[in-house]
Fold this protein.
Amino acid sequence: MSLSMYQASVPVFVQILTALAKVLDKAEAHAAAKKIDPAVLLGCRLAPDMFPLVRQVQTACDMAKGAAARLAGAEIPSWPDNENSFAGLKDRIAKTVEFVQGFKAAQIDGSEAREVALKLGGKPVTFTGQSYLLHFVLPNFYFHAAAAYAILRHNGVELGKRDFLGQVPGLTV
């Protein structure tokens, strides 16, 4: 059996974004327990030239919603990047999950050869749907989700690999 474009995208986005929301719950609880201003964690970054936590979460969400829409040939919703709390970030994640789950497999499957055009660094770039998903979206999506996790882990939030992975379909432990 082959893997479809839908299977390689929407369920993956939902799994990791759902886990990321739970990671943010742990971060919020950690901040409260340690009497840390949540704004401090939200503004943390791993290196001076990297995005802070807020932008990492926003970008992971943007990668998921943009990919689902582009692969389905649909309009990408534009959401302001104005989250400044854990609740705001979790709302954005929930909105993203709801958006990507709104696509049916039939809308995304068959998009392997669909032309996907976008601008990177102000320059036009064209991908096939498959190349876009496998070689651009998924690496970027995982990068930003992992960076958000790493920022929080680095700042003392008790997290493990299972927190990052979330509910793995078919895995029973």
Observations:
- The chain has one domain: 10-165.
- The chain has a mean pLDDT of 96.
- The two ends are 26 Å apart (CA to CA).
- The longest strand covers residues 115-120.
